[in-house]
UniProtKB/TrEMBL annotation, chains A, B:
Catalyzes the hydrolysis of the adenine ring of phosphoribosyl-AMP. Belongs to the PRA-CH family. This is Phosphoribosyl-AMP cyclohydrolase. Residues 38-111 form the Phosphoribosyl-AMP cyclohydrolase domain. Binds 1 Mg(2+) ion per subunit. Binds 1 zinc ion per subunit. It is found in: Cytoplasm. Zn(2+) binds at residues 86, 102, 109. The keyword Thylakoid does not apply. Its main location: cytoplasm.
Length: 124, 124
């Protein structure tokens, strides 16, 4: 294992590992309920904006720009804790949401479960 | 909103939306504790293998191949439930892990938190 990889996995330095598009995965988890609210991507700019403001920012792959979640709807995500995975290419943002996280109005984007090949509503 | 998008967001059809590399995001959550154990990617082959076996399979971006989690270590993930997000480009696999999920031996790959710019161990 390279020194870089050892430091990344066992060290205390935050060395986020972005992919060839400059992105890493970000999972938003409700800090109170533990429910997974959404999954998105962050680039360095989104990581910096999130750390600087305490409000979750992502990189919109469709628009190719910085995306402050809730900028229009007001349904922002206040970041309580950030967890970092072994190889530092994924983050969990434990958040307090100001309102429904999903643009559909659902509390979580994960409002359906797959059962026997069919999507069914999840009780929330 | 296009018919395709409406069906994808509100319908009961499973229409997984893969990106330009043929991948979608997959988050593994412990079905009992709600802890997030790992984040990876799936292609159509990994989705099919997971649905056919009930054991989590992913696509290894580094090796470019199908990856049955735990094939070597024995630390497989038994899938109890699959949640699908609004635009069907992310899945949550609620799993019962056979052992530690992380290759480091940690229960979860998310064994560190970011605090004041420094990574600190998370109590598990």
């Amino acid at each position: 294992m390279s020194t870089d990889q050892t430091e990344r996995e066992t060290g205390s330095q935050f060395l986020p590992k972005f992919d060839d598009k400059g992105l890493l995965s970000a999972v938003v988890q409700d800090a109170d309920s533990g429910a997974i609210l959404m999954v998105a991507f962050m680039d360095q700019e989104a990581v910096d904006a999130t750390l600087n403001t305490g409000i979750a920012h992502f990189h919109s792959r469709s628009r190719g720009t910085l995306w402050k979640k809730g900028e229009t709807s007001g349904n922002t995500l206040q970041v309580e804790q950030i967890l970092v995975d072994c190889d530092q290419d994924a983050l969990v943002l434990r958040c307090l949401p100001a309102g429904p996280t999903c643009h559909t109005g659902a509390v979580s984007c994960f409002y359906r479960r797959l059962e026997d090949g069919i999507l069914q509503p999840v009780k929330s």
